[in-house]
Amino acid sequence: MAHALVPRVRQARRAIVGFGCNQAFLFAMLYLGSFNESAQHGFLIDRADLLFVLLVMAATFALMARERSRRRLVAAADGLVRCYALPLAVALYLLVALHGLMPGIPWLALAAAEGLVAGVSLALLLCQWGRVLGEASIDQSVPEVFIGSALGAAVCFFVVAIPVEGAYILLYVLPAGSAWALRALGESGGAADGAAPADAAERAEGRRASRDGDNVGGRGPEPTAADAPTDEAAKLSGRIVAGTVVYGVATGAVEALGSSAEGAGTSSLSVTFVLFVLYCAAALQLYGGRPGSLGVRAVLPTGPDQEVGPLGGAYRLAILLMVGGFVAVPLLESVGVSGVAVVLAGYLGVFSVLVSLFLIMGRIGGGDAVRSIARGFAALFAGEITGVLIGGIVGALPGTFDASAALVALAGVAVMYAYLFLFTDRDMAALSVVVAQTDRFEEACELIARTAKLSKREAEILPLALRGRTAERIAGEFFISKNTVDTHLRRIYAKCGVHTRQELIDLGEKTETEL
Protein backbone atom coordinates (compact mmCIF):
# COMPACT_ATOMS: atom_id res chain seq x y z
CA MET A 1 0.00 0.00 0.00
CA ALA A 2 2.82 2.38 0.91
CA HIS A 3 4.55 1.52 -2.34
CA ALA A 4 1.36 2.35 -4.27
CA LEU A 5 1.19 5.78 -2.62
CA VAL A 6 4.64 6.83 -3.83
CA PRO A 7 3.54 7.86 -7.37
CA ARG A 8 0.57 9.74 -5.91
CA VAL A 9 2.77 11.66 -3.47
CA ARG A 10 5.24 12.45 -6.24
CA GLN A 11 2.45 13.73 -8.49
CA ALA A 12 1.05 15.86 -5.66
CA ARG A 13 4.44 17.45 -5.09
CA ARG A 14 4.85 18.20 -8.78
CA ALA A 15 1.36 19.70 -8.93
CA ILE A 16 2.00 21.91 -5.90
CA VAL A 17 5.38 23.15 -7.12
CA GLY A 18 4.22 23.67 -10.69
CA PHE A 19 0.97 25.40 -9.77
CA GLY A 20 2.91 27.51 -7.26
CA CYS A 21 5.24 28.65 -10.05
CA ASN A 22 2.23 29.51 -12.19
CA GLN A 23 0.53 31.48 -9.39
CA ALA A 24 3.71 33.39 -8.51
CA PHE A 25 4.10 34.42 -12.14
CA LEU A 26 0.43 35.45 -12.29
CA PHE A 27 0.77 37.58 -9.15
CA ALA A 28 3.93 39.17 -10.54
CA MET A 29 2.28 40.13 -13.83
CA LEU A 30 -0.75 41.60 -12.10
CA TYR A 31 0.80 43.41 -9.16
CA LEU A 32 4.58 43.73 -9.49
CA GLY A 33 6.55 46.02 -11.75
CA SER A 34 5.70 48.62 -14.37
CA PHE A 35 7.35 50.07 -17.42
CA ASN A 36 6.19 53.57 -16.43
CA GLU A 37 9.15 55.27 -14.80
CA SER A 38 8.29 58.77 -15.98
CA ALA A 39 6.82 61.63 -13.98
CA GLN A 40 3.59 61.36 -15.98
CA HIS A 41 0.74 59.86 -13.98
CA GLY A 42 -2.99 59.47 -14.32
CA PHE A 43 -5.72 56.93 -13.78
CA LEU A 44 -5.29 54.90 -16.97
CA ILE A 45 -1.52 55.46 -17.06
CA ASP A 46 -0.97 54.06 -13.58
CA ARG A 47 -3.14 51.05 -14.33
CA ALA A 48 -2.11 50.35 -17.91
CA ASP A 49 0.04 47.30 -17.09
CA LEU A 50 -2.76 45.71 -15.06
CA LEU A 51 -5.46 46.49 -17.63
CA PHE A 52 -3.48 45.13 -20.57
CA VAL A 53 -2.87 41.79 -18.86
CA LEU A 54 -6.48 41.51 -17.67
CA LEU A 55 -7.93 42.40 -21.09
CA VAL A 56 -5.80 39.86 -22.94
CA MET A 57 -6.45 37.11 -20.38
CA ALA A 58 -10.21 37.73 -20.39
CA ALA A 59 -10.30 37.62 -24.21
CA THR A 60 -8.23 34.44 -24.35
CA PHE A 61 -10.43 32.70 -21.78
CA ALA A 62 -13.54 33.79 -23.66
CA LEU A 63 -12.15 32.27 -26.86
CA MET A 64 -11.18 29.09 -25.00
CA ALA A 65 -14.78 28.71 -23.83
CA ARG A 66 -16.00 28.74 -27.46
CA GLU A 67 -16.03 25.50 -29.39
CA ARG A 68 -14.64 26.85 -32.67
CA SER A 69 -11.48 28.42 -31.32
CA ARG A 70 -10.90 26.00 -28.50
CA ARG A 71 -9.07 23.25 -30.37
CA ARG A 72 -6.47 25.67 -31.74
CA LEU A 73 -5.90 27.24 -28.35
CA VAL A 74 -5.54 23.83 -26.70
CA ALA A 75 -2.97 22.91 -29.35
CA ALA A 76 -1.14 26.19 -28.70
CA ALA A 77 -1.18 25.47 -24.96
CA ASP A 78 0.29 22.01 -25.56
CA GLY A 79 3.01 23.57 -27.71
CA LEU A 80 3.83 26.09 -24.99
CA VAL A 81 4.16 23.28 -22.45
CA ARG A 82 6.28 21.13 -24.76
CA CYS A 83 8.87 23.89 -25.10
CA TYR A 84 8.78 24.55 -21.32
CA ALA A 85 7.36 28.06 -21.92
CA LEU A 86 10.87 29.28 -22.78
CA PRO A 87 9.65 31.58 -25.61
CA LEU A 88 7.53 33.41 -23.02
CA ALA A 89 10.51 34.04 -20.71
CA VAL A 90 12.72 35.08 -23.62
CA ALA A 91 10.10 37.52 -24.92
CA LEU A 92 9.64 39.13 -21.50
CA TYR A 93 13.39 39.51 -20.93
CA LEU A 94 13.74 41.03 -24.42
CA LEU A 95 11.12 43.63 -23.52
CA VAL A 96 13.03 44.45 -20.33
CA ALA A 97 16.26 44.75 -22.34
CA LEU A 98 14.62 47.02 -24.91
CA HIS A 99 13.29 49.21 -22.12
CA GLY A 100 16.80 49.58 -20.71
CA LEU A 101 18.73 49.94 -23.97
CA MET A 102 16.23 52.10 -25.88
CA PRO A 103 14.53 54.45 -23.42
CA GLY A 104 12.97 56.31 -26.34
CA ILE A 105 10.47 53.50 -26.96
CA PRO A 106 7.06 54.53 -25.58
CA TRP A 107 6.54 52.64 -22.33
CA LEU A 108 2.87 52.21 -23.18
CA ALA A 109 3.83 50.15 -26.23
CA LEU A 110 6.07 47.97 -24.08
CA ALA A 111 3.27 47.52 -21.55
CA ALA A 112 0.87 46.50 -24.33
CA ALA A 113 3.39 44.01 -25.72
CA GLU A 114 3.97 42.57 -22.25
CA GLY A 115 0.24 42.27 -21.67
CA LEU A 116 -0.24 40.45 -24.98
CA VAL A 117 2.64 38.00 -24.48
CA ALA A 118 2.05 37.32 -20.79
CA GLY A 119 -1.76 37.46 -20.91
CA VAL A 120 -2.17 34.85 -23.65
CA SER A 121 0.44 32.55 -22.13
CA LEU A 122 -0.99 32.82 -18.61
CA ALA A 123 -4.48 32.00 -19.86
CA LEU A 124 -3.21 28.97 -21.78
CA LEU A 125 -1.20 27.69 -18.82
CA LEU A 126 -4.12 28.14 -16.43
CA CYS A 127 -6.34 26.13 -18.78
CA GLN A 128 -3.68 23.43 -18.89
CA TRP A 129 -3.64 23.37 -15.10
CA GLY A 130 -7.41 23.11 -15.18
CA ARG A 131 -7.10 20.04 -17.40
CA VAL A 132 -4.41 18.38 -15.26
CA LEU A 133 -5.99 19.16 -11.88
CA GLY A 134 -9.41 18.31 -13.27
CA GLU A 135 -8.24 14.79 -14.05
CA ALA A 136 -7.30 14.24 -10.39
CA SER A 137 -9.84 13.61 -7.65
CA ILE A 138 -11.47 16.67 -6.13
CA ASP A 139 -10.16 15.75 -2.69
CA GLN A 140 -6.63 15.82 -4.08
CA SER A 141 -6.80 18.83 -6.43
CA VAL A 142 -8.46 21.32 -4.04
CA PRO A 143 -5.74 21.15 -1.35
CA GLU A 144 -3.11 21.33 -4.10
CA VAL A 145 -4.66 24.60 -5.30
CA PHE A 146 -4.39 26.17 -1.84
CA ILE A 147 -0.90 24.87 -1.07
CA GLY A 148 0.38 25.88 -4.53
CA SER A 149 -1.17 29.33 -4.24
CA ALA A 150 0.41 29.85 -0.83
CA LEU A 151 3.77 28.76 -2.25
CA GLY A 152 3.41 31.27 -5.10
CA ALA A 153 2.58 34.09 -2.68
CA ALA A 154 5.57 33.18 -0.50
CA VAL A 155 7.88 33.34 -3.52
CA CYS A 156 6.52 36.78 -4.43
CA PHE A 157 7.00 37.97 -0.85
CA PHE A 158 10.67 37.01 -0.81
CA VAL A 159 11.24 38.64 -4.20
CA VAL A 160 9.53 41.84 -3.02
CA ALA A 161 11.74 41.77 0.09
CA ILE A 162 14.91 41.80 -2.04
CA PRO A 163 16.33 45.36 -1.77
CA VAL A 164 17.07 45.53 -5.50
CA GLU A 165 15.02 47.55 -7.94
CA GLY A 166 13.44 45.38 -10.62
CA ALA A 167 14.04 42.14 -8.73
CA TYR A 168 10.58 40.99 -9.82
CA ILE A 169 11.96 40.09 -13.27
CA LEU A 170 13.47 37.02 -11.61
CA LEU A 171 9.95 35.62 -11.62
CA TYR A 172 9.87 35.61 -15.43
CA VAL A 173 11.56 32.19 -15.39
CA LEU A 174 8.74 30.61 -13.36
CA PRO A 175 6.56 29.63 -16.36
CA ALA A 176 9.31 27.13 -17.19
CA GLY A 177 8.69 25.45 -13.82
CA SER A 178 4.96 25.47 -14.46
CA ALA A 179 5.41 23.89 -17.89
CA TRP A 180 7.86 21.32 -16.53
CA ALA A 181 5.32 20.18 -13.95
CA LEU A 182 2.57 20.04 -16.56
CA ARG A 183 4.75 17.86 -18.79
CA ALA A 184 5.75 15.60 -15.92
CA LEU A 185 2.15 15.19 -14.77
CA GLY A 186 0.95 14.60 -18.32
CA GLU A 187 3.55 11.91 -18.90
CA SER A 188 2.97 10.20 -15.55
CA GLY A 189 -0.81 10.40 -15.77
CA GLY A 190 -0.70 9.71 -19.46
CA ALA A 191 -3.44 9.67 -21.98
CA ALA A 192 -4.54 6.12 -22.31
CA ASP A 193 -3.24 3.98 -25.12
CA GLY A 194 -1.23 6.68 -26.73
CA ALA A 195 -3.86 9.38 -26.94
CA ALA A 196 -2.30 12.83 -27.00
CA PRO A 197 -2.84 15.16 -24.04
CA ALA A 198 -4.46 17.64 -26.40
CA ASP A 199 -7.27 15.14 -26.91
CA ALA A 200 -8.19 15.13 -23.23
CA ALA A 201 -10.33 18.24 -23.51
CA GLU A 202 -12.03 16.83 -26.61
CA ARG A 203 -12.78 13.55 -24.82
CA ALA A 204 -14.18 15.52 -21.88
CA GLU A 205 -16.34 17.54 -24.24
CA GLY A 206 -17.55 14.32 -25.80
CA ARG A 207 -18.51 13.03 -22.35
CA ARG A 208 -20.45 16.20 -21.66
CA ALA A 209 -22.18 16.24 -25.03
CA SER A 210 -23.05 12.56 -24.91
CA ARG A 211 -24.77 12.72 -21.53
CA ASP A 212 -28.10 12.95 -23.36
CA GLY A 213 -29.21 11.25 -26.53
CA ASP A 214 -27.54 7.84 -26.38
CA ASN A 215 -29.63 4.72 -25.91
CA VAL A 216 -29.34 1.00 -25.49
CA GLY A 217 -31.56 -1.20 -27.60
CA GLY A 218 -33.60 1.74 -28.87
CA ARG A 219 -34.49 3.20 -25.46
CA GLY A 220 -32.62 5.45 -23.08
CA PRO A 221 -31.00 3.93 -20.02
CA GLU A 222 -32.56 4.41 -16.64
CA PRO A 223 -31.26 7.52 -14.85
CA THR A 224 -28.31 6.89 -12.57
CA ALA A 225 -26.94 8.88 -9.67
CA ALA A 226 -24.36 10.34 -12.01
CA ASP A 227 -27.06 11.89 -14.22
CA ALA A 228 -29.32 13.10 -11.41
CA PRO A 229 -27.36 16.21 -10.36
CA THR A 230 -27.08 17.62 -13.87
CA ASP A 231 -29.82 20.25 -13.51
CA GLU A 232 -28.71 21.21 -10.02
CA ALA A 233 -25.11 21.45 -11.23
CA ALA A 234 -26.17 23.82 -14.02
CA LYS A 235 -27.97 26.08 -11.53
CA LEU A 236 -24.99 26.10 -9.17
CA SER A 237 -22.66 26.83 -12.06
CA GLY A 238 -24.74 29.87 -13.01
CA ARG A 239 -24.69 31.13 -9.43
CA ILE A 240 -20.94 30.67 -9.17
CA VAL A 241 -20.35 32.61 -12.38
CA ALA A 242 -22.67 35.41 -11.25
CA GLY A 243 -20.86 35.66 -7.93
CA THR A 244 -17.53 35.53 -9.74
CA VAL A 245 -18.42 38.59 -11.81
CA VAL A 246 -19.42 40.56 -8.71
CA TYR A 247 -16.23 39.60 -6.85
CA GLY A 248 -14.25 40.71 -9.89
CA VAL A 249 -16.03 44.08 -10.03
CA ALA A 250 -15.47 44.70 -6.32
CA THR A 251 -11.79 43.79 -6.53
CA GLY A 252 -11.25 45.90 -9.63
CA ALA A 253 -12.78 48.91 -7.89
CA VAL A 254 -10.37 48.49 -4.98
CA GLU A 255 -7.44 47.92 -7.34
CA ALA A 256 -8.31 51.27 -8.89
CA LEU A 257 -7.09 52.71 -5.59
CA GLY A 258 -4.17 50.39 -4.97
CA SER A 259 -2.61 50.65 -8.45
CA SER A 260 -2.03 54.37 -8.36
CA ALA A 261 1.39 55.90 -7.96
CA GLU A 262 0.65 56.85 -4.40
CA GLY A 263 -1.28 53.65 -3.68
CA ALA A 264 -0.09 50.27 -2.58
CA GLY A 265 3.67 50.11 -2.61
CA THR A 266 6.15 47.41 -1.89
CA SER A 267 5.32 47.27 1.83
CA SER A 268 1.60 46.93 1.11
CA LEU A 269 2.21 44.05 -1.29
CA SER A 270 4.31 42.36 1.35
CA VAL A 271 1.35 42.62 3.73
CA THR A 272 -0.92 41.16 1.05
CA PHE A 273 1.29 38.15 0.40
CA VAL A 274 1.88 37.45 4.10
CA LEU A 275 -1.84 37.64 4.90
CA PHE A 276 -2.67 35.40 1.97
CA VAL A 277 -0.14 32.76 3.07
CA LEU A 278 -1.64 32.87 6.57
CA TYR A 279 -5.11 32.56 5.05
CA CYS A 280 -4.10 29.44 3.10
CA ALA A 281 -2.58 27.94 6.24
CA ALA A 282 -5.81 28.60 8.14
CA ALA A 283 -7.93 27.21 5.30
CA LEU A 284 -5.88 24.01 5.19
CA GLN A 285 -6.37 23.57 8.95
CA LEU A 286 -10.08 23.11 8.25
CA TYR A 287 -9.34 19.68 6.80
CA GLY A 288 -8.53 18.31 10.23
CA GLY A 289 -5.74 16.11 8.88
CA ARG A 290 -3.03 16.12 6.28
CA PRO A 291 -4.51 17.95 3.26
CA GLY A 292 -4.37 15.81 0.17
CA SER A 293 -3.99 12.56 2.10
CA LEU A 294 -6.27 9.59 1.60
CA GLY A 295 -9.66 9.94 3.27
CA VAL A 296 -9.60 13.74 3.42
CA ARG A 297 -12.75 15.35 2.07
CA ALA A 298 -12.30 18.74 0.42
CA VAL A 299 -15.96 19.56 -0.25
CA LEU A 300 -18.11 17.22 1.83
CA PRO A 301 -18.81 17.98 5.52
CA THR A 302 -16.32 16.21 7.79
CA GLY A 303 -18.72 15.90 10.74
CA PRO A 304 -22.41 15.11 11.33
CA ASP A 305 -23.16 18.61 12.64
CA GLN A 306 -21.49 20.48 9.77
CA GLU A 307 -23.39 21.92 6.84
CA VAL A 308 -20.42 22.52 4.55
CA GLY A 309 -16.99 20.99 4.12
CA PRO A 310 -13.50 22.51 4.31
CA LEU A 311 -13.91 24.37 1.02
CA GLY A 312 -17.07 26.01 2.36
CA GLY A 313 -15.14 27.07 5.45
CA ALA A 314 -12.36 28.46 3.26
CA TYR A 315 -15.00 30.42 1.32
CA ARG A 316 -16.34 31.98 4.53
CA LEU A 317 -12.84 32.78 5.72
CA ALA A 318 -11.92 34.52 2.45
CA ILE A 319 -15.07 36.64 2.54
CA LEU A 320 -14.39 37.51 6.18
CA LEU A 321 -10.86 38.63 5.35
CA MET A 322 -12.05 40.63 2.35
CA VAL A 323 -14.86 42.37 4.24
CA GLY A 324 -12.56 42.93 7.20
CA GLY A 325 -10.25 44.79 4.88
CA PHE A 326 -13.09 47.03 3.73
CA VAL A 327 -14.10 47.83 7.31
CA ALA A 328 -10.53 48.41 8.50
CA VAL A 329 -9.40 50.61 5.61
CA PRO A 330 -9.66 53.92 7.57
CA LEU A 331 -8.00 52.44 10.66
CA LEU A 332 -5.17 50.82 8.74
CA GLU A 333 -4.51 53.94 6.69
CA SER A 334 -4.05 55.91 9.93
CA VAL A 335 -1.14 53.66 10.95
CA GLY A 336 0.51 53.67 7.54
CA VAL A 337 -0.73 50.28 6.27
CA SER A 338 -2.80 50.18 3.11
CA GLY A 339 -6.24 48.74 3.75
CA VAL A 340 -6.27 47.77 0.10
CA ALA A 341 -3.55 45.23 0.94
CA VAL A 342 -5.92 43.40 3.28
CA VAL A 343 -8.77 43.48 0.75
CA LEU A 344 -6.42 42.14 -1.92
CA ALA A 345 -5.35 39.28 0.36
CA GLY A 346 -9.02 38.38 0.82
CA TYR A 347 -9.50 38.53 -2.93
CA LEU A 348 -6.63 36.12 -3.48
CA GLY A 349 -8.36 33.81 -1.01
CA VAL A 350 -11.62 34.09 -2.97
CA PHE A 351 -9.57 33.52 -6.14
CA SER A 352 -8.26 30.20 -4.77
CA VAL A 353 -11.75 29.13 -3.76
CA LEU A 354 -13.05 29.99 -7.22
CA VAL A 355 -10.31 27.96 -8.91
CA SER A 356 -11.39 25.00 -6.79
CA LEU A 357 -15.05 25.60 -7.63
CA PHE A 358 -14.29 25.78 -11.36
CA LEU A 359 -12.55 22.40 -11.11
CA ILE A 360 -15.51 20.95 -9.22
CA MET A 361 -18.05 22.30 -11.69
CA GLY A 362 -16.04 20.82 -14.53
CA ARG A 363 -16.07 17.44 -12.80
CA ILE A 364 -19.78 17.29 -12.00
CA GLY A 365 -20.72 18.98 -15.26
CA GLY A 366 -19.24 16.27 -17.48
CA GLY A 367 -15.52 16.16 -16.78
CA ASP A 368 -14.63 19.25 -18.82
CA ALA A 369 -12.50 21.29 -16.42
CA VAL A 370 -10.86 23.29 -19.23
CA ARG A 371 -14.16 24.75 -20.36
CA SER A 372 -15.20 25.43 -16.76
CA ILE A 373 -11.89 27.16 -15.99
CA ALA A 374 -12.10 29.26 -19.16
CA ARG A 375 -15.69 30.31 -18.53
CA GLY A 376 -15.04 31.17 -14.90
CA PHE A 377 -11.87 33.18 -15.43
CA ALA A 378 -13.39 35.04 -18.38
CA ALA A 379 -16.17 36.18 -16.03
CA LEU A 380 -13.77 37.00 -13.18
CA PHE A 381 -11.36 39.12 -15.23
CA ALA A 382 -14.16 40.81 -17.18
CA GLY A 383 -15.65 41.84 -13.84
CA GLU A 384 -12.25 43.00 -12.60
CA ILE A 385 -11.75 45.18 -15.69
CA THR A 386 -15.22 46.65 -15.20
CA GLY A 387 -14.42 47.40 -11.56
CA VAL A 388 -11.18 49.20 -12.45
CA LEU A 389 -13.01 51.35 -15.00
CA ILE A 390 -15.82 52.10 -12.52
CA GLY A 391 -13.18 53.15 -10.02
CA GLY A 392 -11.74 55.54 -12.57
CA ILE A 393 -15.14 57.04 -13.32
CA VAL A 394 -15.98 57.50 -9.63
CA GLY A 395 -12.59 59.06 -8.98
CA ALA A 396 -13.10 61.52 -11.83
CA LEU A 397 -16.52 62.72 -10.66
CA PRO A 398 -16.55 66.38 -9.58
CA GLY A 399 -17.39 67.22 -6.02
CA THR A 400 -15.90 67.24 -2.57
CA PHE A 401 -16.85 63.71 -1.53
CA ASP A 402 -14.16 61.16 -0.75
CA ALA A 403 -13.93 58.95 -3.87
CA SER A 404 -11.81 56.37 -2.04
CA ALA A 405 -14.39 55.93 0.71
CA ALA A 406 -17.17 55.67 -1.88
CA LEU A 407 -15.33 52.96 -3.82
CA VAL A 408 -14.56 50.96 -0.69
CA ALA A 409 -18.19 51.19 0.46
CA LEU A 410 -19.56 50.13 -2.95
CA ALA A 411 -17.10 47.25 -3.23
CA GLY A 412 -17.93 46.05 0.29
CA VAL A 413 -21.66 46.09 -0.45
CA ALA A 414 -21.06 44.18 -3.70
CA VAL A 415 -19.08 41.46 -1.91
CA MET A 416 -21.72 41.04 0.78
CA TYR A 417 -24.45 40.91 -1.86
CA ALA A 418 -22.60 38.17 -3.75
CA TYR A 419 -22.05 36.16 -0.56
CA LEU A 420 -25.58 36.56 0.81
CA PHE A 421 -27.68 36.36 -2.36
CA LEU A 422 -25.69 34.95 -5.31
CA PHE A 423 -23.48 32.09 -4.17
CA THR A 424 -24.31 31.45 -0.54
CA ASP A 425 -23.54 28.89 2.17
CA ARG A 426 -26.76 27.12 1.20
CA ASP A 427 -25.46 26.76 -2.36
CA MET A 428 -22.16 25.41 -1.02
CA ALA A 429 -24.13 22.81 0.96
CA ALA A 430 -26.10 21.90 -2.19
CA LEU A 431 -22.81 21.58 -4.03
CA SER A 432 -21.67 19.09 -1.40
CA VAL A 433 -24.71 16.93 -2.16
CA VAL A 434 -24.05 17.00 -5.90
CA VAL A 435 -20.39 16.17 -5.37
CA ALA A 436 -21.37 13.27 -3.08
CA GLN A 437 -23.61 11.84 -5.80
CA THR A 438 -20.90 12.20 -8.41
CA ASP A 439 -18.28 10.70 -6.12
CA ARG A 440 -20.55 7.75 -5.38
CA PHE A 441 -20.81 6.89 -9.06
CA GLU A 442 -17.05 7.20 -9.52
CA GLU A 443 -16.40 5.08 -6.43
CA ALA A 444 -18.78 2.45 -7.76
CA CYS A 445 -16.88 2.36 -11.05
CA GLU A 446 -13.56 2.04 -9.24
CA LEU A 447 -14.88 -0.74 -7.02
CA ILE A 448 -16.26 -2.70 -9.96
CA ALA A 449 -13.04 -2.26 -11.94
CA ARG A 450 -10.92 -3.35 -8.98
CA THR A 451 -13.11 -6.32 -8.08
CA ALA A 452 -13.39 -7.55 -11.68
CA LYS A 453 -9.68 -6.81 -12.33
CA LEU A 454 -10.42 -4.73 -15.42
CA SER A 455 -7.57 -3.41 -17.55
CA LYS A 456 -6.84 0.32 -17.73
CA ARG A 457 -8.77 0.77 -20.97
CA GLU A 458 -11.67 -1.37 -19.74
CA ALA A 459 -11.83 0.73 -16.56
CA GLU A 460 -12.03 3.88 -18.72
CA ILE A 461 -14.84 2.45 -20.84
CA LEU A 462 -16.82 1.16 -17.85
CA PRO A 463 -18.29 4.55 -16.71
CA LEU A 464 -19.46 5.30 -20.24
CA ALA A 465 -21.01 1.85 -20.55
CA LEU A 466 -22.80 2.33 -17.22
CA ARG A 467 -24.22 5.59 -18.54
CA GLY A 468 -25.60 3.75 -21.57
CA ARG A 469 -23.26 5.14 -24.21
CA THR A 470 -23.37 3.35 -27.54
CA ALA A 471 -20.28 1.56 -28.83
CA GLU A 472 -20.05 4.10 -31.66
CA ARG A 473 -19.98 7.02 -29.24
CA ILE A 474 -17.41 5.36 -27.00
CA ALA A 475 -15.24 4.64 -30.05
CA GLY A 476 -15.44 8.31 -31.08
CA GLU A 477 -14.38 9.50 -27.64
CA PHE A 478 -11.28 7.33 -27.46
CA PHE A 479 -10.42 7.48 -31.17
CA ILE A 480 -10.58 3.72 -31.57
CA SER A 481 -12.70 1.47 -33.77
CA LYS A 482 -16.16 0.19 -32.86
CA ASN A 483 -14.92 -3.39 -33.11
CA THR A 484 -12.26 -2.62 -30.49
CA VAL A 485 -14.95 -1.17 -28.19
CA ASP A 486 -17.12 -4.27 -28.71
CA THR A 487 -14.18 -6.45 -27.75
CA HIS A 488 -13.57 -4.41 -24.59
CA LEU A 489 -17.26 -4.58 -23.69
CA ARG A 490 -17.37 -8.37 -24.09
CA ARG A 491 -14.37 -8.66 -21.77
CA ILE A 492 -16.01 -6.31 -19.25
CA TYR A 493 -19.20 -8.41 -19.31
CA ALA A 494 -17.23 -11.63 -18.82
CA LYS A 495 -15.11 -10.27 -15.95
CA CYS A 496 -18.14 -8.73 -14.22
CA GLY A 497 -20.24 -11.88 -14.61
CA VAL A 498 -23.00 -10.27 -16.69
CA HIS A 499 -24.29 -10.91 -20.21
CA THR A 500 -25.94 -7.66 -21.39
CA ARG A 501 -25.49 -3.92 -21.07
CA GLN A 502 -28.61 -3.64 -18.92
CA GLU A 503 -27.27 -6.22 -16.49
CA LEU A 504 -24.06 -4.19 -16.28
CA ILE A 505 -26.05 -1.03 -15.55
CA ASP A 506 -28.02 -2.92 -12.88
CA LEU A 507 -24.71 -4.00 -11.33
CA GLY A 508 -23.54 -0.38 -11.26
CA GLU A 509 -26.75 0.80 -9.57
CA LYS A 510 -26.54 -2.01 -7.02
CA THR A 511 -22.94 -1.09 -6.21
CA GLU A 512 -23.88 2.59 -5.79
CA THR A 513 -26.71 1.63 -3.44
CA GLU A 514 -24.35 -0.49 -1.34
CA LEU A 515 -21.89 2.40 -1.13
UniProtKB/TrEMBL annotation:
Residue segments, region Disordered: 190-231
Residues in HTH luxR-type domain copies: 447-512
SUPFAM superfamilies: C-terminal effector domain of the bipartite response regulators
UniProt biased composition (Basic and acidic residues): 200-214
Tree of life domain: Bacteria
CDD domains in alphabetical order: LuxR_C_like
Alphabetical keyword list: DNA-binding, Membrane, Transcription, Transcription regulation, Transmembrane, Transmembrane helix
Listed transmembrane segments: 12-32, 44-63, 83-101, 107-126, 146-174, 269-287, 314-332, 338-361, 373-397, 403-422
Protein's name in the database: Helix-turn-helix transcriptional regulator
Database matches in InterPro entries: Sig_transdc_resp-reg_C-effctor (IPR016032), Tscrpt_reg_LuxR_C (IPR000792), WH-like_DNA-bd_sf (IPR036388)
PANTHER family recorded: DNA-BINDING TRANSCRIPTIONAL ACTIVATOR DEVR_DOSR (PTHR44688:SF16)
Any matching Pfam family: GerE
